[in-house]
Amino acid sequence: MSDQRKVSPARRRGLSDEVADRIREAIFSGVYAPGAQLREVELSAMMDVSRGPVREALRVLEREGLVHCAWHRGTTVTTVSPEDVAELDSLRGALEDLAVRQVITRASDEDIASLAKAAEVMKHVSDAHEMVRLDIAFHDAVFAAAGHQRLADAWDGIRCQVHLFLLTRINLSTDGYLGCIPREHQGLVTALRSRDTETALGLFAAHRRHAVDVVTGNADPN
Predict the structure, then answer these.
(1) Is the predicted pLDDT of residue 93 greater than 70, yes or no?
(2) Chain-wide mean pLDDT for the chain?
């Protein structure tokens, strides 16, 4: 009996994680836009699973900030509010400033080369959703290169919400987006490679501000 108790929960947890991965992927791919309803019955039918794992998966995504569950409205993909934008921007900025300082003082030349490779891939992308993925992947690499595990964990706590924020940005407009993002990241790599702290901090801040301005309507997306 004790063996069964050990095995069964692990199986259910694995299934709900798989369901969460598939729903998360659908959100990041644009299948479900911010504000879209996610119905347990429909999701369970599409994925050929019972409603239990779907319900657990939605709870996981709610903890990540990707969905919002309310008894009177059901579950919807999170719509990023002005308050969300302000909080994400300030927290991301604080984390990223520390990451930049860490990379400049501690990262190896091989780490910087990996960042350059991540930025180079962006030049060949023609899909906005894929560009968002690569943008997030680049910043994942920055936090990894910082060599600060707790800092990386803090970034991991908000990265899905940042991803959703960037999806909001491209949903508003993609004019100029596929061209400017690779250029911005090339500039970030150049500053990190030169170990120029102030320039790097300024460029990372400008990179964040550009997206915030587009979402808040304070700038031309170009």
Answers:
(1) yes
(2) 91
Q: Which of 154, 158, 157, 140 is nearest to 103 (CA)?
A: 140
* Residue 146: Cβ-neighbour burial (10 angstroms; 0-12, 13-18, 19+): buried
Q: Model's pTM, two decimal places?
A: 0.88
Query: What is the structure's pLDDT at 13?
Result: 52
- Three-state SS at 38: strand
Please count the other Cβ atoms lying within 10 Å of the Cβ belonging to residue 110: 8
Residues in the chain: 222
Calculate the alpha carbon distances from 81 to 10, 35, 199, 216 in Å: 36, 11, 30, 9
- Listed in sequence order, the DSSP H helices in 107-148 are 109-121, 128-145
What is the token pair recorded at 167?
């999806």
**Nearest alpha-carbon partner for 15 in 41, 51, 69, 42:** 51
- pLDDT tens-digit series, residues 178-222: 999 999 999 999 999 999 999 999 999 999 999 999 999 876 544
pLDDT, mean of residues 117-136? 96
Beta bridge partners of 37: 76
Strands (E), the chain: 37-38, 67-70, 74-77
